[in-house]
Amino acid sequence: MYLSIFLGTVEQGLLWSLMVLGIYMTYRVLDYADLTVEGSFTLGAAMAARLIFDGYDPVLATLLAIFSGAIAGVITGILHTQFRIAPLLSGILSMIALYSINLRIMGKANISLLRLDTVISKITAMGVPEDWSVLVMGIFVAAAVVVILWLFLNTEIGLAMRATGDNPQMIRSLGANTNVMKIIGLSLSNALVALSGALVAQYQNFADVGMGIGTIVVGLASVIIGEVLFGTKSVIRTLIAVVLGSLVYRMVVAGVLQMGLNPNDLRLLTALIVTLALASPILKEKIRNLLASKRSEDNA
């Protein structure tokens, strides 16, 4: 029983890690607080589920889900860069609009994918044992995305994007268009989030209009956990740390649920984890100052 719980937790962590990598692109690389992800995660799930339900190939459905997420990111980027709407508000506007769009795509609040072909069933048909198909797919996709992002972030465009998040005035003085960098970054981020939503929907065998609620908090928790536990000395190490952070977060959640935590309190636990992680540098500084003050008093 514990092995099946562990495997299920790892599978979920790998599929959700794609969303976490998307949030990393905006939160860390662009220094942009993007709430579009709460809508684009569901958008990816809704698009893939609707197309699969209508008889389309699941691989094509997943690719179109990625494209739809990229479009959502472009719209958020245009709202911010062309209409000078604040990053937080532009994301909120896109998120609100996507709720209605997702309902339009699905035609109802949820779609079941039971007994329908998905990318997971395709992997099983290739000879991979059914119990391991999701794990194999998750490892392959997560590894591929990490490598692609690492290569991209070391290109000229990727370096300009990183500089846009670090020091936009400097990179503008060098002739780079920071608005274009933001739009590309938001598009890439939400494409990854939509990919995660599409794969999670096929893993769960359903898509629901509310499945993206709380996505941003889960993503931030995973990013911060990964950075704190595994470090950020290089780009590739940071990307791997983000994926591992998603796995650790899912294991923590599975562990506390096994200990009897009410599932209704799960979002409260996530909020506490994020708060503690964000406040940890200040808490460490306060503890260090307190210990130094105590030592000075003892010496006196």
UniProtKB/TrEMBL annotation:
Record-linked CDD domains: TM_PBP1_branched-chain-AA_like (cd06574)
Residue intervals passing through the bilayer: 6-25, 59-79, 86-106, 132-153, 180-203, 209-230, 239-260, 266-283
Cell compartment(s), UniProt: Cell membrane
Keywords: Cell membrane, Membrane, Transmembrane, Transmembrane helix
Keyword hit for Membrane: yes
The protein, known as: ABC transporter permease
Coiled coil: none
Lineage top rank: taxon: Bacteria
Membrane topology label: Multi-pass membrane protein
Pfam families in alphabetical order: BPD_transp_2 (PF02653)
Family annotation (InterPro entries): ABC_transp_permease (IPR001851)
